[in-house]
Write a structure and sequence with these properties.
The chain is 56% helix and 0% strand. The chain is built from three helices and no strands.
Length: 87
């Protein structure tokens, strides 16, 4: 049975992020970035791995130009241990 829900800020941010992801995928497909469904599937698998890594981070870096949209690469890079200098 359906239930009504008044979306809070988190709900809206989650949906906004998903919307941006869908738009990014649509744009990439229309621009011919993927030559096959296998390439698209590989891209989505890579994105899933990045999202899994980001979920383990305590602090997230958000896109400045996309409210509510997580910057996966910057979030992961921010939490990676830096290489120590051999000196």
């Amino acid at each position: 049975m359906s239930r009504l829900n008044v979306p809070d800020e988190w709900d809206r941010a989650e949906l906004t992020g998903r919307m941006y992801e869908a738009i990014d995928l649509e744009t990439a497909i229309r621009d011919g970035r993927f030559a096959s469904l296998n390439e698209l599937a590989d891209c989505l698998a890579d994105q899933s791995k990045l999202m899994n890594q980001a979920l383990r981070c305590h602090i997230w870096v958000m896109h400045a130009d996309k409210p509510g949209c997580l910057d996966l690469n910057r979030t992961i890079a921010r939490t990676r241990p830096r290489q120590r200098s051999p000196i």
